């Protein structure tokens, strides 16, 4: 093994540090299946660094560690694919190994598949072995290789989960720091609006009165929205689910955006929306972001045309916001959901956080979100929410 390969393996293993040991139960089923499929008495999942082999899940033997020099699996890490050996005493690379000679064990039959990370780095093996020589069919060896891939999938899922937890902890810390700064301006604005509406002449004015009342409602909802979204960040995506009438939520969103809708002379077509089990405040944030984007990105000289609707799909509801704007190129439709991404609209206002937040909220609900092309030639923003009812 080259120094570069060894460094890559050490770096990859650092990403999985302690995961195998802490989540042995998650891996136990896979190692038991491997032993059954191959018809052997023992199997193990090994993570191998430059000094030691660590057995993180086993069947037929007690999990243990040994030096890399003594490891049979360390000898096949550089092999291009799975390895099967009928009798290890007859293989030069294993004949003097202490697991074969009786110093540690008396392995005869041995087969293993490498654990390759998504980046292609080999970090260990899934191996099966027995004290009697035996053959292993090509189909069984292929199943062993598939199971090795499943082991990596489990390790990768656990690694990502750990990183997300760290990310959520960082986000919670950030939320605690900025909540005061976010809510203070809204509180002040609410106070000024209340002072204005307390003046009888202002409140009675046919023009100013309704606008002040609408601004007060919007400010109150916005303060509540900020507070709830900060709670969402603090608690790592905890949802407050209830029966949510999306028709009512959409009406609130359009009321909040009424000034933008009027200024743009937007044409709206709103269909019937379903009632779903979800977090009301967070879905309002998603709808508000998607509708605001549809209003913002429009063709030069043309008034926005929006269609909001929903369709029943397998297992849930698909909510769609179609517009007649310039659209999003197909190769950017996934990229714009990245944090701080604003797509091809270089002059667009905003932080680039909105779509990323929308995805986080929808996925927390067990749903999916994406962009497509609308029949009007613009963007079709959609999200799917699961419906547990038959």
Short recap of the structure:
With 390 residues, this protein is an alpha+beta fold. The protein has helices at 3-15, 19-22, 24-38, 98-101, 138-197, 200-204, 208-234, 246-256, 258-264, 280-296, 354-364, and strands at residues 42-48, 52-59, 65-67, 83-85, 109-116, 122-130, 241-245, 267-270, 275-279, 305-313, 316-323, 368-373, 379-386. It has two domains: 3-162, GAF domain (Beta-Lactamase); 239-390, Histidine kinase-like ATPase, C-terminal domain (Heat Shock Protein 90), CATH 3.30.565.10.
List keywords for this structure.
Beta-Lactamase, Heat Shock Protein 90, alpha+beta, 6-stranded antiparallel β-sheet, 390 residues, single chain
CATH superfamily of the largest domain: GAF domain
Q: What is the correct CATH architecture of the largest domain?
A: 2-Layer Sandwich
Give the uncertain stretches in residue-range form.
344-352
Q: Give me the side-by-side strand order of the main sheet.
A: 3-2-1-6-5-4
Cα-based radius of gyration, to the nearest Å: 29 Å
CATH class of the largest domain: Alpha Beta
Q: Mean of residue pLDDT?
A: 81
Folded structure, characterized:
This protein folds into 2 domains: 3-162, Beta-Lactamase (2-Layer Sandwich); 239-390, Histidine kinase-like ATPase, C-terminal domain (Heat Shock Protein 90), CATH 3.30.565.10. 45% of the residues lie in helices and 21% in strands. It has 11 helices and 13 strands. Helix 7 (208-234) crosses helix 10 (280-296).
């Amino acid at each position: 093994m080259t120094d570069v390969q060894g460094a890559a393996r050490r770096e990859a293993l650092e990403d999985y540090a302690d995961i195998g040991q802490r989540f042995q139960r998650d891996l136990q089923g896979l190692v038991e299946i491997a032993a059954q499929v191959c018809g052997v008495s023992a199997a193990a999942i090994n993570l191998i660094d430059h000094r030691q082999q660590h057995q993180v899940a086993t069947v037929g033997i007690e999990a243990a560690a040994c030096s890399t020099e003594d490891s049979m699996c360390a000898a096949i890490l550089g092999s291009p694919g799975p390895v099967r050996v009928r009798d290890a005493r007859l293989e030069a690379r294993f004949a003097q190994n202490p697991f074969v000679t009786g110093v540690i064990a008396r392995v005869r039959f041995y087969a293993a598949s490498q654990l390759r990370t998504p980046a292609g780095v080999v970090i260990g093996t899934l191996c099966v072995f027995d004290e009697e020589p035996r053959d292993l069919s090509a189909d069984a060896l292929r199943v062993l290789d598939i199971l090795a891939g499943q082991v990596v999938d489990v390790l990768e899922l656990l690694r990502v989960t750990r990183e997300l937890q760290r990310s959520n902890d960082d986000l919670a810390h950030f939320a605690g720091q900025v909540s005061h700064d976010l809510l203070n301006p809204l509180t002040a604005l609410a106070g000024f609006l209340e002072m204005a509406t307390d003046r009888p002449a202002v409140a009675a004015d046919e023009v100013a009165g309704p606008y002040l009342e609408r601004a007060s409602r919007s400010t109150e909802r916005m303060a509540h929205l900020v507070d709830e979204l900060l709670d969402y960040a603090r608690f790592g995506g905890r949802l407050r689910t209830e029966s949510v009438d999306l028709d009512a939520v959409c009406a609130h969103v359009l009321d909040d955006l009424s000034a933008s809708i009027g200024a743009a002379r937007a044409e709206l077509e709103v269909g019937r929306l379903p009632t779903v089990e979800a977090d009301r405040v967070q879905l309002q944030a998603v709808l508000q972001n998607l509708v605001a984007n549809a209003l913002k990105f429009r063709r030069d000289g043309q008034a926005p045309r929006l269609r909001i609707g929903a369709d029943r799909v397998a297992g849930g509801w698909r909510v769609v916001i179609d517009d007649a704007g310039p659209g999003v190129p197909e190769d950017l439709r996934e990229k714009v959901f990245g944090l701080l991404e604003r797509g091809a609209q270089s002059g667009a206002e905003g932080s680039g956080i909105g779509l990323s937040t929308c995805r986080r909220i929808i996925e927390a609900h067990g749903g999916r979100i994406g962009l497509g092309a609308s029949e009007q030639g613009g963007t079709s923003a959609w999200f799917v929410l699961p419906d547990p009812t038959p």
